[in-house]
Amino acid sequence: MKTLNYLCKGSQIEGVIFHGLRVLLSENENNRPRIDGQISINIESGIKVFQSMPETDPEPNEIPNLDWVKSAKIMCEMRLKKIVEVKLGQENPHLYLILGSGEVLFINGHHDQFESWQVEVQSNTIESEVFLVAACPGDDIAVWVPGDVLE
Question: 51 near 101, Cβ under 8 Å?
Answer without folding.
Answer: no
